[in-house]
Amino acid sequence: MAADDARARALPVTAEGEDRPVPDLDSVGEIHDLVVRFYREIVFDDILAPVFDEVAEVNWAVHIPRLIRYWCRVLIGTPGYDGYILAAHRHVHGLEPFELEYFDRWYTLFVETVDAGWSGPLADTAKSHAARMAAMLARQLLDAEWHAPVAVTKR
């Protein structure tokens, strides 16, 4: 059954009913699509939307291109991202303290988004990098150990 589930994710069906291969996150276009799809989920999430919209007051027109540049640097080595993620998150944490639940939800949505559209070594790298990033932020901001939810990592 698990192999069938993986195969179904690896070969989505087109509108014409034909299987097509799932891309990896190996281009700026694919990374753009991931970031847009993922943060679309965040905007409508009951747990995370208030943090992004009401606390951080994210300007999505500025934030999305910055996140695309970040993930392009991480996944395909494209230069262009010049931010420091800890400082930005520390600022928001200072406005309203983060909770470990936020990291669980963020990571779960991220993995679900990746798994719904991409497969391959760079998709796996994105998920493992997201877990390391969440763990680092939890350690630095909350002085807490965070581990990726087991149900999410077992996909």
Layout of SSEs?
Blueprint: H1 2-10, H2 28-43, H3 49-55, H4 60-76, H5 85-95, H6 100-117, H7 121-142, H8 150-153
Helix pairs in contact: 2-4, 2-6, 4-7, 6-7
Give me some keywords for this one.
Globin-like, disordered N terminus, 155 residues, 67% helix, 8 helices, mainly alpha
Describe the structure.
With 155 residues, the chain is an all-alpha fold. It has one domain: Orthogonal Bundle (Globin-like), CATH 1.10.490. Helix content is 67%, strand content 0%. The protein is built from 8 helices and no strands. Helix 2 packs across helix 4, helix 4 (60-76) packs across helix 7 (121-142) and helix 6 packs antiparallel against helix 7. The two termini are 12 Å apart.
Concise account of the structure shown:
The protein has helices at residues 2-10, 28-43, 49-55, 60-76, 85-95, 100-117, 121-142, 150-153. The protein contains eight helices and no strands.
Mean pLDDT: 87
Order of helices and strands: HHHHHHHH
CATH superfamily: Globins
Oligomer: single chain
